[in-house]
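Record format v2
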Amino acid sequence: MKSSVIVFPGSNCDRDIAVALEKMQFKNQMVWHKETRLPKSDLIVLPGGFSYGDYLRSGAIAGKSLIIDEVIRAANDGCLVLGICNGFQILTETGLLKGTLLRNKNLKFINKNVRIKVMNNETKFSNKYKKDEVLKINIAHNEGNFFTDDNHLKELKENNLISFKYCDEKGNVDDQSNPNGSLENIAGIYNLKKNILGMMPHPERMVDKLISNTDGVNLFSSLLN
Amino acid sequence: MEITDQIIENHGLKTQEFNEIKKLLKREPNLLELGIFSAMWNEHCSYKSSRLHLKKLPTNGKQVIQGPGENAGVIDIGDNDAIVFKIESHNHPSYIEPYQGAATGVGGILRDVFTMGARPIALLNSIHFGSPTHPKTKSLLNGVVSGIGGYGNCIGIPTVAGETKFDETYNENNLVNAMAVGLAKKDKIFYSKAKGINKSVVYVGSKTGRDGIHGASMASAEFDENTEDKKPTVQVGDPFTEKLLMEACLELMKDSSIISIQDMGAAGLTSSSVEMASKGSLGVELELDKVPCREENMTPYEMMLSESQERMLIILEEGKEKDAKKIFDKWDLDFVVIGKTTNTNNLTLKFNDKIEGEIPIEALANKAPIYDRKWIRKKISKNKVELKNLKKIKIEDALLKILSSPNHSNKSWITNQYDQAVMCDTAQKSGSDAAIIRIHNKDKAIAVSVDSSANYCKSHPITGGKQTVCENWRNLISVGAKPLAITNCLNFGNPENENIMGEFAECLEGIKEACEFLDYPVVSGNVSFYNGTNKKNINPTPVIGGVGLINKLSNPMGHSFKKDKSAIIVIGKTFGHLEQSCFLKENYSIVEGMPPEINLLNEKNNGENVLKLIQEKLILSSHDISNGGLLVALSEMVFSSSFGIKILKPKKLSNLLGYFFGEDQGRYVLEIDNRNLQKVEKKLKNNNIYYEYIGNTQRDYFEIEGEMKIAVKDLCKSNNKWYNNY
Amino acid sequence: MKFSITVTLKKDVLDPQGKVVQNTLNNIGFNLKSIRQGKYFEVVVDEKDQKKAEKKVDEMCKKLLVNLIIEDYKINKL
């Protein structure tokens, strides 16, 4: 399977996702944001980091770069798109995903391992996970507080578009297990066609037992399935 | 413009120094030239008070590729891999504007590392604040932690270890020491020595503004009531631009276009151009009208002294300018040829074709006065602490008091603000004895730690200096790493004060002795003097940053108990030394007496044996014993695990408090699977290592037979209490 | 009484955000000489005397809203 990782000035987790993709047997290419054409890809990844320093608004400036038009075109054609952390923020700024990521409730950057629950295990990104499976995964962000209007929230629920929710070890979704104040503990969402996934936690950080764990592996396996 | 006495003083120069300048130039300097001398001759750039003493430090070893004298130190970790690292202070700016002061401190040290061709792979910091009850402490703490996180997280380098300390000695003078560690190829290290005449001198990075003009002079001046007026000299960091600059430089470094490269740090364009030329015994001519400026109408004086961040100076091979510029254009950074190397041995500054200043390079780089400041040895304290006169205290109460104190309480509220996992090679994070960073794509890893013991250094500088090195060494051993080399940041008060200078000289003596004995050389470092306000100086605070090597990383060795009913042994003898201990400070507010003695032979033997045991996979978890003594070390092993312990009452020692809270050095706590206990004991006996079996792990309770029993949950609660209330 | 507070960076202080926003606007086709980013607050104080109200707002700025080391501010009555 062919993947393209878009690299913006300030992207930091591009190497990390490339390493994970290659480990999972993807044929990966790095694409600089100034390119006007995308290589033929089955999966496009917008990596984590601080594109453009998060200046103005996280993801706002990257959302206006040359390559984004190509990403939008490919997404509309059905190409799979994965936005991780800053990538998720960029997806919301371009409109490919609705909603927005606000400053964390406690106003501080948070880096720690949290638990998320697989809410929908029937998509191209999640079919290798069990329904309601609880994953231990790393978050690292200042603006991870997902918010959207009532209409969109309704759409998300009615169409099973919420991919992950923050929860505790036993899978309980509650305030205590919500690290950043996200609406209904939402950690990730799909678009209507379910070919675009945006998520705040970092699956590429969870593919190596020595460093962390392998709870992220199945996300990539699902894609290869 | 006439140079008056007031102008000389404003530039931080003394009259004799000014006279020396006149002698070297054979005339009076103009204002531009005076500014340049003031920048190059201040303490921060010239090390005039410290040079004589720093010369004594051991800087060699077969693991050393580059010692002090370059932007950072370089050590060999085998396989054509090298580690580049250094620690630096940014104390005064952090007091004035904590967020930006700390942020630009991180930015500066990162540039020192990647300028040598190393991709930074870890950041550490040692930060010290005044008493938590002091009105400024909370805002300084918040600002500094946010600044460190804001810069490190944005540039995408994990901040993996550090220490945060509170003591009233830092009330008006907080300390921020930032350390960066980078990975390079041994055969691709870049140095700052300029070579060749008529080579292009290229400016890359951010535009030049009026930031920090005379920041280097500020670092060499004490604070007083007028400090508030110094505000405009604070620089604002731009981590986004630094990320671009780092990537662009590392890309350019892939080929051989660069002859030499240096970052523009303190005294910006001045120090970088002078140092590069001086090392190469060349001259340099700069056309200042070519310098990219972000403000209008900047004068040559402002351009030469600006400390705008995120800029580098490169000397390029002939004909490489076009290709190099392409790389910097890709990353949207300024790339301008602003001058050339010459054989005049002068720093020649031109503006619009007119020579505005001309100074012999040697006068700036090597003729700064070196002071052999007077110093006196610390008298050994005659005050003995009579333990029997102290109010009786229960062990449990004493322990909880220490664990809930600001210095010992759980610091995850700080470390959670730093991205520790980015780059996906952090095998062990903050909170352990040392962080472990895997070398990308390889089996091996490095361990890093940063440590200080200001209280010991205050009471007996030689011992304190020795102890700080030993503790740092032990922290690396505890995670299974062979300690290789250190960087040091020496934070002291006013060197013109004989006592302070004595503290400096003696701490260095201690550091030297320990480093020599342990084969643990100093490869880089920084000196920060004048940390004082209104004649009150800080306690001597040498900070040691160490790097060690783990040849084959299997499971990271941490200090969390791993199993139920495993054996716990203590390596090294406990004499019960309580003077200068946390126990006395937290429970009785007594800070008296001598620090614990250091026995270097024991340190070495104990450490080498512990390392071997870890490498032979006979140890489940290990922890070095330092502040707070044995009980605090055991508590720390409990917090991070899900196990408690049961400790047997020691049979021989009568003073239980001394046994449990004494801060005797050279000791480790090891957790050993019962099945391996005999094997381990045999090895220790064969090597004459003193050890004691003290008990075993158990579920749920922290217990000392007949003395105390507390639920682990409650122990953790007391450790988390302080921050939640602050 | 309602006031607006406009907080801007002092003249010589680096504005990393403004710099990047300017480049982006230029790339999208807007030509501008410079742009600096600041903050805007609207405050309503319970005070009928204008002079007293302004003094209160000014104190708020000095105590919290403005980083006096690198920022300037302007108060306007709305």
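Chain C has one domain: 2-77.
Chain C has a mean pLDDT of 91.
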